[in-house]
Fold this protein.
Amino acid sequence: METQAGTGSIPSARGIDAGKLEKELAAKWASETDAKSDGATAGVTRACVLNLIVYTTSLEGRDEVDALLDELVARHPSRALVLVVDREATEAKLEASASTRCHSSAKGAKQICGEQVTVEAAGPAVENVSTAVAPLLVTDVPVFLWWKDIPHYEDKLFDRLSELADRVVIDSASFDHPHDDLNRLAQLLADRERPAVISDLNWGRLTAWRSLVASFWDVADYKQSLGQIERVVLEYERPEKAPGEISPKALLAVGWMASRLGWELEPSVIRLKEDSASFGFRSGERSIEVALRPTKSTKRQCGMLTSLTISCAEGGEFYVGLKPEGTKLETVAQIGGRERSVGRVLNYEARTEGQRLSSELEILSRDLVYEEAVQSAARLLERLER
Protein backbone atom coordinates (compact mmCIF):
# COMPACT_ATOMS: atom_id res chain seq x y z
CA MET A 1 0.00 0.00 0.00
CA GLU A 2 1.20 3.52 -0.76
CA THR A 3 -0.18 6.71 0.68
CA GLN A 4 0.56 10.23 -0.43
CA ALA A 5 -0.54 13.59 0.88
CA GLY A 6 -0.03 17.17 -0.22
CA THR A 7 -0.73 20.16 2.01
CA GLY A 8 -1.26 23.87 1.77
CA SER A 9 -2.19 26.38 4.46
CA ILE A 10 -4.81 29.10 4.35
CA PRO A 11 -4.58 31.01 7.65
CA SER A 12 -7.40 33.25 8.76
CA ALA A 13 -7.62 35.42 11.86
CA ARG A 14 -11.33 36.12 11.52
CA GLY A 15 -12.59 32.89 10.10
CA ILE A 16 -12.08 30.29 7.40
CA ASP A 17 -12.82 31.05 3.78
CA ALA A 18 -14.51 27.88 2.53
CA GLY A 19 -14.41 29.11 -1.06
CA LYS A 20 -10.62 29.47 -1.03
CA LEU A 21 -10.21 26.03 0.48
CA GLU A 22 -12.41 24.48 -2.21
CA LYS A 23 -10.34 26.19 -4.92
CA GLU A 24 -7.11 24.94 -3.39
CA LEU A 25 -8.46 21.40 -3.22
CA ALA A 26 -9.59 21.62 -6.85
CA ALA A 27 -6.07 22.72 -7.83
CA LYS A 28 -4.55 19.83 -5.91
CA TRP A 29 -6.86 17.35 -7.64
CA ALA A 30 -5.86 18.72 -11.02
CA SER A 31 -2.21 18.35 -10.07
CA GLU A 32 -2.71 14.79 -8.80
CA THR A 33 -4.56 13.77 -11.95
CA ASP A 34 -1.80 15.10 -14.23
CA ALA A 35 1.07 13.66 -12.18
CA LYS A 36 3.23 11.07 -13.93
CA SER A 37 6.17 10.89 -11.55
CA ASP A 38 8.55 8.33 -13.07
CA GLY A 39 5.57 6.47 -14.46
CA ALA A 40 4.56 5.44 -10.95
CA THR A 41 1.20 7.22 -11.02
CA ALA A 42 -1.13 5.77 -13.59
CA GLY A 43 -4.03 7.99 -12.58
CA VAL A 44 -6.11 9.24 -9.70
CA THR A 45 -9.73 8.57 -8.83
CA ARG A 46 -11.28 11.19 -6.60
CA ALA A 47 -13.82 9.65 -4.23
CA CYS A 48 -15.91 10.73 -1.28
CA VAL A 49 -18.28 8.25 0.34
CA LEU A 50 -18.69 10.19 3.58
CA ASN A 51 -17.68 13.21 5.63
CA LEU A 52 -15.59 12.49 8.73
CA ILE A 53 -15.27 15.24 11.33
CA VAL A 54 -12.49 14.42 13.80
CA TYR A 55 -12.21 16.32 17.07
CA THR A 56 -8.91 16.11 18.94
CA THR A 57 -7.36 18.34 21.57
CA SER A 58 -3.61 18.25 21.07
CA LEU A 59 -0.99 18.62 18.38
CA GLU A 60 0.30 15.16 19.33
CA GLY A 61 -3.18 13.85 18.65
CA ARG A 62 -2.97 15.33 15.14
CA ASP A 63 -0.08 13.03 14.24
CA GLU A 64 -2.04 10.05 15.57
CA VAL A 65 -5.09 11.04 13.52
CA ASP A 66 -2.99 11.44 10.36
CA ALA A 67 -1.66 7.89 10.74
CA LEU A 68 -5.14 6.54 11.36
CA LEU A 69 -6.61 8.28 8.33
CA ASP A 70 -4.01 6.51 6.20
CA GLU A 71 -5.62 3.24 7.35
CA LEU A 72 -9.11 4.46 6.46
CA VAL A 73 -8.58 5.92 3.00
CA ALA A 74 -8.55 2.57 1.17
CA ARG A 75 -12.00 1.50 2.45
CA HIS A 76 -13.51 4.90 3.11
CA PRO A 77 -12.22 7.64 0.80
CA SER A 78 -13.80 10.72 2.31
CA ARG A 79 -13.53 14.36 3.15
CA ALA A 80 -11.93 14.41 6.58
CA LEU A 81 -12.29 17.60 8.60
CA VAL A 82 -9.72 17.35 11.39
CA LEU A 83 -10.25 19.80 14.23
CA VAL A 84 -7.20 20.37 16.46
CA VAL A 85 -8.54 22.36 19.41
CA ASP A 86 -6.77 24.16 22.25
CA ARG A 87 -9.43 25.33 24.67
CA GLU A 88 -6.93 26.55 27.28
CA ALA A 89 -5.24 29.15 25.06
CA THR A 90 -5.98 32.83 25.70
CA GLU A 91 -5.16 34.02 22.19
CA ALA A 92 -7.69 33.34 19.45
CA LYS A 93 -6.57 31.23 16.49
CA LEU A 94 -8.52 29.79 13.57
CA GLU A 95 -6.47 28.44 10.66
CA ALA A 96 -7.03 25.81 8.00
CA SER A 97 -4.91 23.72 5.64
CA ALA A 98 -5.98 21.48 2.77
CA SER A 99 -4.49 18.20 1.56
CA THR A 100 -5.23 15.12 -0.52
CA ARG A 101 -4.75 11.61 0.82
CA CYS A 102 -4.21 8.80 -1.71
CA HIS A 103 -3.98 5.03 -1.56
CA SER A 104 -2.80 2.48 -4.11
CA SER A 105 -2.65 -1.25 -3.48
CA ALA A 106 0.17 -1.87 -5.96
CA LYS A 107 2.80 0.17 -7.75
CA GLY A 108 1.41 1.62 -10.92
CA ALA A 109 -2.20 0.97 -9.96
CA LYS A 110 -4.78 3.72 -10.08
CA GLN A 111 -4.86 5.63 -6.81
CA ILE A 112 -8.03 6.16 -4.78
CA CYS A 113 -7.90 9.55 -3.13
CA GLY A 114 -9.83 11.38 -0.47
CA GLU A 115 -9.18 14.82 0.93
CA GLN A 116 -8.54 16.47 4.25
CA VAL A 117 -9.04 19.90 5.75
CA THR A 118 -7.23 20.47 9.04
CA VAL A 119 -8.56 23.26 11.23
CA GLU A 120 -6.52 24.54 14.15
CA ALA A 121 -8.59 26.49 16.67
CA ALA A 122 -7.57 28.04 19.96
CA GLY A 123 -8.98 30.26 22.68
CA PRO A 124 -12.18 32.18 21.98
CA ALA A 125 -12.14 31.07 18.32
CA VAL A 126 -13.05 27.52 19.40
CA GLU A 127 -16.68 28.63 19.67
CA ASN A 128 -16.69 29.38 15.90
CA VAL A 129 -15.38 25.98 14.78
CA SER A 130 -18.78 24.46 14.02
CA THR A 131 -19.69 27.48 11.88
CA ALA A 132 -16.46 26.98 9.92
CA VAL A 133 -17.07 23.24 9.46
CA ALA A 134 -20.62 23.33 8.13
CA PRO A 135 -19.84 24.94 4.70
CA LEU A 136 -17.04 22.43 4.11
CA LEU A 137 -19.23 19.32 4.32
CA VAL A 138 -19.83 17.44 1.06
CA THR A 139 -23.55 17.18 0.40
CA ASP A 140 -25.52 13.95 -0.18
CA VAL A 141 -23.13 11.68 1.76
CA PRO A 142 -23.29 10.75 5.48
CA VAL A 143 -21.56 12.82 8.15
CA PHE A 144 -19.67 11.07 10.97
CA LEU A 145 -18.24 12.84 14.01
CA TRP A 146 -15.36 11.07 15.71
CA TRP A 147 -15.05 12.75 19.10
CA LYS A 148 -11.58 11.88 20.45
CA ASP A 149 -12.30 13.24 23.90
CA ILE A 150 -14.95 13.06 26.61
CA PRO A 151 -18.30 14.68 25.67
CA HIS A 152 -18.53 16.65 28.91
CA TYR A 153 -21.69 18.23 30.27
CA GLU A 154 -22.83 21.47 28.65
CA ASP A 155 -20.23 21.24 25.88
CA LYS A 156 -21.70 23.55 23.26
CA LEU A 157 -19.15 22.59 20.61
CA PHE A 158 -20.00 18.90 20.99
CA ASP A 159 -23.70 19.74 20.76
CA ARG A 160 -23.24 21.82 17.62
CA LEU A 161 -21.00 19.32 15.84
CA SER A 162 -23.23 16.37 16.74
CA GLU A 163 -26.16 18.25 15.21
CA LEU A 164 -24.24 18.21 11.91
CA ALA A 165 -23.58 14.46 12.11
CA ASP A 166 -25.60 11.36 11.25
CA ARG A 167 -23.50 9.32 13.69
CA VAL A 168 -21.19 10.22 16.58
CA VAL A 169 -18.31 7.86 17.43
CA ILE A 170 -16.73 7.90 20.91
CA ASP A 171 -14.51 5.53 22.89
CA SER A 172 -15.58 4.87 26.48
CA ALA A 173 -12.20 3.22 27.14
CA SER A 174 -10.75 6.75 27.24
CA PHE A 175 -13.13 7.98 29.96
CA ASP A 176 -11.08 9.72 32.68
CA HIS A 177 -13.99 9.53 35.15
CA PRO A 178 -15.72 6.28 34.06
CA HIS A 179 -18.72 6.53 36.39
CA ASP A 180 -19.59 10.17 35.72
CA ASP A 181 -18.78 9.89 32.01
CA LEU A 182 -20.91 6.77 31.53
CA ASN A 183 -23.80 8.52 33.26
CA ARG A 184 -23.30 11.45 30.87
CA LEU A 185 -23.34 9.01 27.94
CA ALA A 186 -26.61 7.50 29.17
CA GLN A 187 -28.16 10.98 29.24
CA LEU A 188 -27.01 11.68 25.68
CA LEU A 189 -28.51 8.41 24.46
CA ALA A 190 -31.78 9.10 26.23
CA ASP A 191 -32.14 12.50 24.53
CA ARG A 192 -34.25 11.61 21.52
CA GLU A 193 -34.21 15.20 20.29
CA ARG A 194 -30.63 14.71 19.14
CA PRO A 195 -30.59 13.75 15.45
CA ALA A 196 -27.31 11.81 15.62
CA VAL A 197 -26.87 8.30 16.97
CA ILE A 198 -23.90 7.37 19.15
CA SER A 199 -21.58 4.40 18.82
CA ASP A 200 -18.66 3.34 20.99
CA LEU A 201 -15.37 1.75 19.91
CA ASN A 202 -15.22 0.09 23.33
CA TRP A 203 -18.49 -1.72 22.59
CA GLY A 204 -16.79 -3.23 19.55
CA ARG A 205 -14.06 -4.60 21.82
CA LEU A 206 -16.76 -6.59 23.61
CA THR A 207 -18.06 -8.26 20.43
CA ALA A 208 -16.04 -11.48 20.85
CA TRP A 209 -16.98 -11.71 24.53
CA ARG A 210 -20.68 -11.20 23.82
CA SER A 211 -20.60 -13.76 21.04
CA LEU A 212 -19.00 -16.42 23.23
CA VAL A 213 -21.30 -15.81 26.19
CA ALA A 214 -24.39 -15.87 23.94
CA SER A 215 -23.18 -19.11 22.32
CA PHE A 216 -23.77 -20.98 25.60
CA TRP A 217 -27.50 -20.51 25.02
CA ASP A 218 -27.16 -22.19 21.60
CA VAL A 219 -26.35 -25.55 23.23
CA ALA A 220 -29.54 -27.45 24.13
CA ASP A 221 -27.89 -29.30 27.04
CA TYR A 222 -26.92 -26.01 28.68
CA LYS A 223 -30.27 -24.22 28.59
CA GLN A 224 -31.76 -25.79 31.72
CA SER A 225 -28.75 -24.74 33.81
CA LEU A 226 -28.68 -21.26 32.28
CA GLY A 227 -32.30 -20.85 33.33
CA GLN A 228 -31.11 -21.12 36.95
CA ILE A 229 -28.34 -18.50 37.11
CA GLU A 230 -27.46 -17.57 40.68
CA ARG A 231 -24.27 -15.55 40.38
CA VAL A 232 -22.15 -13.75 37.78
CA VAL A 233 -18.59 -12.59 38.47
CA LEU A 234 -16.71 -10.25 36.13
CA GLU A 235 -13.03 -9.45 36.55
CA TYR A 236 -11.31 -6.56 34.77
CA GLU A 237 -8.08 -4.63 34.64
CA ARG A 238 -8.22 -1.34 36.51
CA PRO A 239 -8.76 1.75 34.33
CA GLU A 240 -5.44 3.59 34.14
CA LYS A 241 -6.98 7.06 34.52
CA ALA A 242 -9.32 6.06 37.36
CA PRO A 243 -7.97 2.92 39.09
CA GLY A 244 -10.55 3.23 41.88
CA GLU A 245 -13.56 3.01 39.55
CA ILE A 246 -15.14 0.11 37.67
CA SER A 247 -13.94 -0.38 34.10
CA PRO A 248 -16.44 0.90 31.47
CA LYS A 249 -16.06 -2.38 29.60
CA ALA A 250 -17.09 -4.38 32.69
CA LEU A 251 -20.07 -2.07 33.26
CA LEU A 252 -21.16 -2.45 29.64
CA ALA A 253 -20.85 -6.25 29.86
CA VAL A 254 -23.09 -6.37 32.94
CA GLY A 255 -25.52 -3.91 31.38
CA TRP A 256 -25.70 -6.07 28.26
CA MET A 257 -26.42 -9.30 30.18
CA ALA A 258 -29.02 -7.68 32.44
CA SER A 259 -30.85 -5.97 29.58
CA ARG A 260 -30.83 -9.04 27.29
CA LEU A 261 -31.98 -11.46 30.01
CA GLY A 262 -34.59 -9.12 31.45
CA TRP A 263 -33.07 -8.90 34.92
CA GLU A 264 -34.53 -6.25 37.21
CA LEU A 265 -32.17 -4.40 39.52
CA GLU A 266 -33.06 -4.77 43.17
CA PRO A 267 -32.85 -1.68 45.40
CA SER A 268 -29.92 -2.99 47.43
CA VAL A 269 -26.24 -2.89 46.55
CA ILE A 270 -23.51 -4.38 48.72
CA ARG A 271 -20.33 -2.38 48.66
CA LEU A 272 -17.30 -4.62 48.94
CA LYS A 273 -13.73 -3.73 49.83
CA GLU A 274 -11.99 -0.99 47.86
CA ASP A 275 -13.36 -0.71 44.30
CA SER A 276 -15.28 -4.00 44.06
CA ALA A 277 -19.07 -4.02 44.13
CA SER A 278 -21.87 -6.58 44.24
CA PHE A 279 -25.36 -5.92 42.85
CA GLY A 280 -28.62 -7.78 43.34
CA PHE A 281 -30.95 -8.60 40.45
CA ARG A 282 -34.21 -10.49 40.18
CA SER A 283 -35.50 -12.68 37.37
CA GLY A 284 -39.00 -13.86 38.20
CA GLU A 285 -38.72 -15.55 41.60
CA ARG A 286 -34.95 -15.98 41.39
CA SER A 287 -32.35 -13.67 42.97
CA ILE A 288 -29.08 -13.16 41.10
CA GLU A 289 -25.89 -11.62 42.45
CA VAL A 290 -23.50 -9.85 40.07
CA ALA A 291 -20.02 -9.07 41.37
CA LEU A 292 -17.48 -6.82 39.65
CA ARG A 293 -13.89 -6.81 40.83
CA PRO A 294 -10.49 -5.79 39.53
CA THR A 295 -8.02 -8.53 38.77
CA LYS A 296 -4.72 -8.67 40.60
CA SER A 297 -2.82 -8.94 37.33
CA THR A 298 -1.13 -5.85 35.91
CA LYS A 299 0.07 -7.33 32.62
CA ARG A 300 -2.84 -6.52 30.34
CA GLN A 301 -4.33 -3.35 28.89
CA CYS A 302 -6.09 -0.99 31.26
CA GLY A 303 -9.83 -1.50 31.60
CA MET A 304 -9.78 -4.81 29.74
CA LEU A 305 -12.27 -7.51 30.71
CA THR A 306 -10.32 -10.59 31.85
CA SER A 307 -12.98 -13.14 32.86
CA LEU A 308 -16.73 -13.68 33.13
CA THR A 309 -18.09 -16.60 35.19
CA ILE A 310 -21.76 -17.64 35.32
CA SER A 311 -22.68 -19.89 38.26
CA CYS A 312 -25.98 -21.80 38.22
CA ALA A 313 -27.95 -24.02 40.58
CA GLU A 314 -26.94 -27.67 40.94
CA GLY A 315 -23.30 -27.03 40.06
CA GLY A 316 -23.61 -25.55 36.59
CA GLU A 317 -20.83 -23.11 35.66
CA PHE A 318 -19.95 -21.30 32.43
CA TYR A 319 -16.74 -19.34 31.97
CA VAL A 320 -15.19 -17.06 29.35
CA GLY A 321 -11.70 -15.80 30.04
CA LEU A 322 -8.67 -14.20 28.47
CA LYS A 323 -5.72 -16.57 28.54
CA PRO A 324 -2.50 -15.32 30.20
CA GLU A 325 -0.79 -14.40 26.94
CA GLY A 326 -3.70 -12.08 26.16
CA THR A 327 -4.21 -13.35 22.59
CA LYS A 328 -6.85 -16.08 23.08
CA LEU A 329 -10.29 -16.36 24.66
CA GLU A 330 -11.28 -19.65 26.25
CA THR A 331 -14.72 -20.96 27.20
CA VAL A 332 -15.34 -23.66 29.81
CA ALA A 333 -18.66 -25.33 30.70
CA GLN A 334 -19.64 -27.53 33.63
CA ILE A 335 -23.07 -29.09 34.21
CA GLY A 336 -24.34 -30.83 37.31
CA GLY A 337 -20.99 -30.74 39.10
CA ARG A 338 -19.29 -32.85 36.44
CA GLU A 339 -15.66 -32.21 35.54
CA ARG A 340 -15.07 -28.93 33.77
CA SER A 341 -14.37 -29.22 30.06
CA VAL A 342 -12.87 -26.68 27.70
CA GLY A 343 -15.42 -25.67 25.11
CA ARG A 344 -13.72 -23.33 22.67
CA VAL A 345 -10.40 -21.51 22.36
CA LEU A 346 -10.44 -18.59 19.94
CA ASN A 347 -7.79 -16.18 18.80
CA TYR A 348 -8.34 -12.77 20.32
CA GLU A 349 -6.37 -10.36 18.20
CA ALA A 350 -6.56 -6.74 19.25
CA ARG A 351 -7.70 -4.58 16.35
CA THR A 352 -6.24 -1.12 15.79
CA GLU A 353 -8.24 1.99 16.48
CA GLY A 354 -8.34 2.62 12.74
CA GLN A 355 -9.81 -0.82 12.05
CA ARG A 356 -12.49 -0.33 14.71
CA LEU A 357 -13.35 3.14 13.42
CA SER A 358 -13.53 1.75 9.87
CA SER A 359 -16.19 -0.74 11.01
CA GLU A 360 -18.24 2.04 12.60
CA LEU A 361 -18.17 4.05 9.38
CA GLU A 362 -20.19 1.30 7.70
CA ILE A 363 -23.13 1.67 10.11
CA LEU A 364 -25.77 4.38 10.20
CA SER A 365 -28.59 2.69 12.11
CA ARG A 366 -29.15 3.06 15.84
CA ASP A 367 -27.70 0.22 17.95
CA LEU A 368 -30.53 -0.40 20.42
CA VAL A 369 -28.72 -3.30 22.14
CA TYR A 370 -25.80 -0.99 22.95
CA GLU A 371 -28.08 1.81 24.11
CA GLU A 372 -29.99 -0.53 26.44
CA ALA A 373 -26.70 -1.85 27.84
CA VAL A 374 -25.55 1.70 28.62
CA GLN A 375 -28.83 2.56 30.33
CA SER A 376 -28.68 -0.62 32.39
CA ALA A 377 -25.08 0.12 33.42
CA ALA A 378 -26.06 3.66 34.40
CA ARG A 379 -28.73 2.27 36.72
CA LEU A 380 -26.03 0.19 38.44
CA LEU A 381 -23.99 3.32 39.02
CA GLU A 382 -27.01 5.12 40.39
CA ARG A 383 -27.38 2.40 43.04
CA LEU A 384 -23.65 2.50 43.73
CA GLU A 385 -23.67 6.23 44.48
CA ARG A 386 -26.54 6.04 46.96
The longest strand covers residues 93-104. Residues 368-385 form the longest helix (18 residues). The chain has eleven helices and 17 strands. The CA atoms of residues 167 and 302 lie 27 Å apart.
